[in-house]
Amino acid sequence: MFQGASTMDSVVEFYKAWQPDLNTLYMCLPEILLGVLALLALVFDVVCKSCAAKRAARGFISAALVAMFICAIGGAFPSPSLEAIMAPGLFFSFGKISIWLVLFIACAFLAINLSGIVRSREGNAEISAPATTHLILIATAAASLLLKATNFVAFFVLLETLTVCLYALVGSNRNSVYSLEAGVKYLIAGGISGGLMLFGIVLLYGGAAMSGAPVLTSEPLSYGTVFVFLTQNPESLLGLAGAGLVLAGVMFKLGVFPMQFWIPDVYQGAPSHVTFFLATFSKATGFFLVLPMLATFSPIWGKLLPVLLACALVSMVYANVTALGMRNVKRLLGLSGVSHAAYLMVGVLGAWQVASSGNAEMAALCVTLVIAYIVVYILTIYPIFSVMSRMPQTNDALQNFDDYEGLSKNNPLLAGTLAFGLGSLAGIPPTVGFIAKLGILFVLFQAGFYGTIAVMLGCVVVSIYYYFGWFRAAFTGGENAPAKTYLPVGLCSRVVLIAFSALMVLASLGYWCVIRGI
Amino acid sequence: MNCGSSLLQVAVAAPLVAALVMVFSKWLPCAAKKAVAGVGFVVPALAALALCCAFPCAEKLGGYAFYSSCETIGVPSLGIWLQFGLNGISLPLFLMATIVGLAAGLRAIATKGVAQSGLYYAVTLVMFGGVLGVFSAIDVFSFYIFHEFALIPTFVAILLWGGYARKTTAITMVIYLTLGAMVSLAGLFALYFAGAGAGEYGFSFLGVAQAVADGIVLDGNVSVIFALLLFGFGILVSLFPFYSWAPDTYSVAPTPISMLHAGVLKKFGLYGLIQLGALALPLGLADWQNWIIWLALGNIVLIGLITMVQKDLKQMVSYSSVMHMGPIFLGIAAFAISGGDTAGLGGAVVLMFAHGLSVALLFHLGQSVYDRTGTYDMTKMGGLTAKAPVLAAFFVAATMASIGLPGFANFWGELTIFTSLAQIQPTWLLGAIVLSIVISAIYGLRAVAKIFYGKNTGAALSDEAFENVSDITAAERVPAIVLFAALVAVGFVPSLITKNIDATLKTDFAPAAKVLCADCGVVPAETDGDAIILEGSIPVEVPADNCEACGGNADQVVLAKNITVSVDGAVGNPGDFVLSGDDATLLKVLEQAEVDEEATFVVVLRVRARIPVDIEELRNGDVEDIPLEDGDKISVE
Fold first, then answer.
1. pLDDT at res. A9
2. Of B151, B167, B190, which is closest to A472 when you measure between CB atoms?
3. How is chain B split into domains, by residue range?
4. Which terminus of chain B, N or C, has fewer Cβ atoms within 10 Å?
5. In terms of Cα–Cα distance, which of B105, B126, B59, B119 is closest to B86?
6. Smallest CA–CA separation between A515 and chain B, in Å?
7. Tell me: domain B562-636, CATH 3.10.560.10, correct?
């Protein structure tokens, strides 16, 4: 059965085929541009000596990112056609726009922006600006390329590239023991998850190669091959174990049980902008990776569904219950992030269930609703981090509810922004967070996951306690406390914060337009 | 869009716009702030009065006057978009909301020494805008959103300007109400997916009413959907035993907020239960009627007893507002108990109207008492009549209204509800229910006696301070007069609102009443070989004799030889089939419809039932063949 020689040949051929041609390079245009920008960030650091020149360089990179963002939204970048990416089944696209690219660039831009604020705080001078920019951009490029990959070699290499960048970012505040500890913890946890995933890939590879059919061995590591293998051997234990392990690696990125254990510690220790980047970018990567993985593993969907659903439900309950006792805001956001990841996960599963029942039109709508949820999450969490990084204490790893007392008296703008952000996270109308949750509920109803709906609604009620606990701290107290000094909010940031708060409400209208457009 | 619908939109928008202006309150002088807020409170009240006058001759769309819709906000293809309008049920509630809002607004403006007064006005205005939206939006989505929209200001107001233990109370309230909101959201979703939103007007009260009128069968378990709505809304309305958030919230919240919440916002759940629950799910209501009776009895008797022992005036009024939800729930249940008589529903709407006004008046006057004595503790007061006779007169009148004495709107509501409950089983329950009047009288009159009669106890006010107590001021008098006038006007001329309520109940609720009508004596089609069908669109429920309650008439019954059923799903020949009486069984229809070979399962949908059958078992004779009725929908899977 096992044809060792021919398999080896096929691996060699695979690497030969990896030689980039012009067309492939064109397809990777946005990633190449991001890579160039990342290198420029380092070059600028060496070349620009004066403060003004450095500021100009930062401005250039920001402007370039904004330009790329606009191009991506406008559909100027080549978007891989569906068939090219996913031979086996459904893949998502927004017409000509690669929605993930838009989101990744937005996350990178906002994180770089936040890093400026974070660095200006006392005790954060060790964080190197060019290195931060460089690593964020490289991670962004890797993640974007990752979603264009069609085989598990590229998948693994790119995922590790991304993760290595994140290790360095988490530990980038060398003066802070919290940051270093978080870096080490993330390294170990990431190593475990990477190992599990690699093991899963190997199992799938072995299974596909051993099954012996010629069509399978020509390119044994591509998604298509694995799909064919699983279609032909839906009962294969090897395939099931492999799929489970690969999904575990993806769930690590997303932060869903059982791979959520790293989140509170790492979120707390990492500098605020990196926490933001983890909360948005890493989650988005995990989320967008789940879709092609589910497509690849769709032949064993019936076996995966209960397991994945159970994982999502456990993380929902776990995160919300654990967060009840949290007073440290970064840990709290980490756990809240786990619950949001779980909402996303059940949304994806629901959409997939609708798709597998054959209703393609409704499935497309459901996928859109789930994608809208992550867009809304990113939109919501930025203003919160923006407020957090302006709070007075020196060590933001130790920020807790008490530090927020009297915020509404001392700085109504920050308090107002925080209120809108928390309201949207909790899903209170009329913020867009509510409509996004409604979208998920719609998907779940469509899929017939009634039990999940009950659990999710229960979790939303529980979450009110900690979100409004934070809210309450910000809006009361501070009568007797000495006036605190918050980081100054410049005119530009003021406009941005107000714009985000307004967007939190107005986006609910925009949300309808997006859905109608599908 | 005509003038009336613009006026309605202006009424909802005015407070919100005024609230938006308050963003600049830092740069506004105090008088300007008060003026802007005043405009925000007065405009809706005037608009509502105008709309009330225009309502009888206004152009109506399915019973809804002043209809307007905006398809940009929403997704028409999913049946969700913003729609505004008023029908006979929502009109009185909308009017009540504006009157209470006006009174609460004037009370808020007159309050002295409020920290951050601009924010205070803004919060009250946003809440006011929200409650107006609740009663004027007719699509269910906006209806729900507006309710939540009004909840946030409540939370902020309690947190910033609340009384004792405000932090704990605020968070308890939010968690409790979010729980209620989530359960009712699940219920609304279930209703939506059961097919209530498929019609021309989407998932709106209008669309649901139309679907019911067209005899569209809900594809879901009506009992479960109704239970979700009942308990979800029940938490929001402080149905026993889910009431514990209410007394604390109302007694801690600033008075204008208590007036708006206890008076108006709480009616959201009852309104939803009438306009969706009773209308679309009459069988669900019938299933749960006993639960409603016993829980409402808990509201009346248990909460009534708790109210009686309150020493704190504001706590007492808060508990009384919880207690008075009992009769309203019973009014809704009476629809099922009486077998489709809509009088109970009408009584519930009138009582909602009246209770909103009277409880707001009590909160308002309670605050006036507090301003004079510096305490809410009734045992420390006494003899205020000597110093504040007008205040005393108002308070006595408000108490009388709350008890339900003739001459006040409450009387008509309670009277109608009690009479419509005549058929309640066991009969002695009626006695327990009427106890509510006695209990109200006990605590109300005791409060009057303690506060206004006797002598000053000296505990709250020293004799010198008591001498300096002044009577009710003009700023306090105006809101009281507004509320009092509305109560008395409807008390003496109930037809001001009942005419419209009755008209809507007669038209919209006729199909639901027909479903509940037990006296109509259903004669199934297959019992005597021939199917008997009614001319018109409601073919299944067949009255044999005269049925006054449901308006059925034996003259309309005709004998028919054929029945019509529709078949869809995995069949070669879908569509309508006309069958003669002998052929009217499931197996015969399936033969005619050429069922696909892979099909394994068939469901028969009719108004009262959903019958799933396995095709193979049916063919083998393992299960009995199903006799069909006219109008059955057969779905093969």
1. 58
2. B167
3. 307-502, 562-636
4. N
5. B59
6. 7
7. yes
